[in-house]
Amino acid sequence: MGSGTGKDLNLKLKVWRQKNKKDAGHFEEIDAPGVSEDSSFLEMLDQVNEKLIHKGVDPIAFDHDCR
Question: What was the pLDDT predicted at 63?
Answer without folding.
Answer: 75
